[in-house]
Design goal:
Elements: H1 8-11, E1 16-17, E2 22-24, H2 26-29, H3 45-54, H4 60-63, H5 71-74, H6 89-102, E3 106-108, E4 114-123, E5 126-138, E6 146-148, H7 158-167, E7 169-170, E8 174-178, H8 184-192, E9 199-200, E10 213-220, H9 223-233, E11 239-243, H10 245-261, E12 273-280, E13 287-289, E14 292-295, H11 317-325, E15 328-334, E16 344-346, E17 353-355, E18 369-370, E19 388-392, E20 398-404, H12 420-424, H13 426-438, E21 448-451, H14 454-462, E22 468-471, H15 477-485, E23 496-498, E24 508-509
Parallel strand pairs: 6-11, 8-12
Antiparallel strand pairs: 1-5, 2-3, 4-5, 4-10, 5-12, 7-24, 8-11, 9-10, 13-18, 13-23, 14-21, 14-22, 15-20, 16-17, 19-20, 19-22
Helix pairs in contact: 6-7, 7-10
């Protein structure tokens, strides 16, 4: 685990620069909403197919190519016989990328620019806006002005690396957070937003799961403004990676490869940078969803009438409840059938939320953490909204609320080499105390599934696909900052930033 050296934040600052973005030709593709898509890591095979069908020019063919999908070539304007080397999805993507550039479907901007991006989206019937600054960020090792906020899996990074090698481009920006305490960058961006945008897309629709969205983009080309933004960027370190940890690490590997091939190329080469979208911590459109855990590798929970784990041969369900009660208080609350929504009463304090009814309804989109609000759904303790867990599957038709017992210390069951903020985080307690010590499950062995959708969690438990679902609160931004300040990381899949940064809005060439 890396830990920052005292003073690093002062010496190692973020460096950003403008770049000549590549954008779709509206005259050719028409509706921009039809050609963008979310980043690859949230695209399922089903949604991948939908994006292929949405437009012959959808960025899915570059962002997440599928080798066995014939539409990858047939819808792009390419003829397979013209490109016999198209033996992999990565080569196909590179060929399509070149073809689209040659045909003017994609075009380079003439002048280097920073790009101001306003993403409008609808949440619970209310339109929200998240503002970001798209720029090229100089690559540096973790802890050198840019910091990860959560652990990542050990999954193979070769997919993104092979795509980067083939196409030599970033098709979607990484999502980074920064602090602007004096609101100097915020003020500049507000002024820029008064000018005419270069992109103004209609709503993208909600058939692919990311909800209604529209995007407005401005190009910041004035040299004085660019210099001012670059200078101010040195004052906002550290920068925290929100989404894109694997892609950032892949970019570092790619940088090393290119440097070895061209050792005299110089530090200004494009491969020394990666495209990012910088969002300020206090932005009112910064939404963070929790990521719930689904357990599927214990003996199946029995029918409620048998009250056994494993159909009468496994551990009695009552024993599992008893083991939980050694460390937590349990409160069972009835679930309202067919009504999937949390009923939460907002207390006068923004940090306090309690269940408003003796009956709970689960929502498909649990209320996210709004910066400055920090409402928790499962906690009745105003001082700590991240202190409780919900469990589905312990009792049929009920949600169990777990709260730490006041007279029991869990510290000996948590890793001693981790920070205090990590040890107090509810997902850390879930991972180490409940999943590891009580259930004996390893999170690294495919025993756990993840979803940001509480209603999906309920459905998968009720269908028997998963035995238990652990529902967690949205992480608060202050917790994210605290864990980074401590030189630590949250457990992997602790956060789901919503909505995702779109691929295809602005493209960055690494060549």
């Amino acid at each position: 685990m890396w830990r920052p050296v005292k003073g690093d934040v002062c010496r190692l600052n973020m460096e950003i620069r403008p770049f000549c973005g590549i954008r779709y030709s509206k005259k050719i593709v028409g509706d921009l909403a039809s050609v963008i898509c979310p980043p690859y890591d949230v695209i399922t095979p089903e949604t991948q197919k939908c994006y292929y069908q949405r437009s012959n020019y959808n960025i899915i063919r570059l962002e997440y190519p599928c080798p066995e999908n014939p539409e990858l070539v047939s819808g792009s304007g390419l003829q397979p016989t013209e490109y016999p080397e198209l033996v992999s999805g990565y080569k196909k993507a590179a060929a399509i990328f070149r073809e689209w550039l040659e045909r003017g479907i994609l075009k380079f901007d003439d002048i280097p620019a920073f790009y101001l991006h306003d993403c409008y989206f609808t949440y619970l019937g209310v339109e929200k806006r998240r503002r970001g600054l798209i720029a090229c960020l100089r690559l540096a090792p973790w802890g050198s002005g840019i910091y990860p906020h959560e652990e990542t899996s050990l999954r193979d990074k070769s997919d993104r690396l092979q795509l980067m090698r083939a196409c030599q481009a970033n098709f979607s920006p990484l999502f980074c957070l920064y602090q602007d305490p004096k609101k100097e960058i915020t003020s500049i961006l507000s002024e820029v937003a008064q000018s005419s945008p270069i992109i103004s897309s209609p709503l993208t629709g909600e058939d692919e799961g990311e909800g209604d969205q529209r995007h407005i983009v401005w190009a910041i080309t004035e040299s004085k403004l660019q210099q001012r933004l670059s200078a101010l960027s040195h004052q906002v370190s550290p920068v925290i990676m929100a989404d894109g940890h694997h892609r950032y690490e892949t970019a570092l590997i790619y940088q090393q490869e290119r440097t070895r091939l061209s050792p005299k190329s110089g530090s200004s080469q494009a491969f020394n940078y990666v495209m990012v979208s910088l969002v300020e911590f206090s932005d009112p459109g910064l939404f963070i969803f929790p990521v719930h855990r689904l357990v599927r590798s214990i003996k199946p929970l029995s029918h409620p009438s048998t009250d056994k784990v494993g159909g009468g041969e496994g551990l009695p369900l009552s024993c599992l409840i008893n083991r939980l009660e050694d460390f937590f208080t349990l409160e069972f609350i009835p679930l309202v059938p067919r009504q999937i929504r949390w009923e939460v009463r907002r207390a006068s304090s923004l940090n306090a939320s309690i269940i408003s009814s003796s009956r709970v309804r689960l929502s498909s989109r649990p209320s996210p953490d709004k910066v400055g609000g920090g409402e928790g759904l499962l906690s009745n303790r105003p001082e700590r909204s991240e202190g409780s867990l919900g469990v589905l599957g312990l009792k049929h038709g009920y949600l169990a609320l777990l709260r730490e017992r006041q007279n029991v210390s869990l510290i000996d069951m948590l890793p001693a080499n981790r920070s205090q903020v990590y040890q107090k985080f509810d997902i850390s307690i879930l991972n180490h105390v409940i999943l590891d010590k009580i259930l004996g499950l390893s999170i690294e062995e495919g025993n756990i599934a993840y979803t940001a959708d509480a209603a999906e969690a309920q459905q998968r438990v009720e269908s028997g696909e998963c035995q238990l679902a652990f529902l967690v609160n949205p992480p608060q931004t202050k917790t994210i900052k605290a864990v980074v300040d401590a030189g630590d990381r949250m457990p992997r899949k602790s956060t789901y930033f919503y909505p995702k940064m779109p691929a295809g809005l602005i493209i960055n060439s690494l060549d």
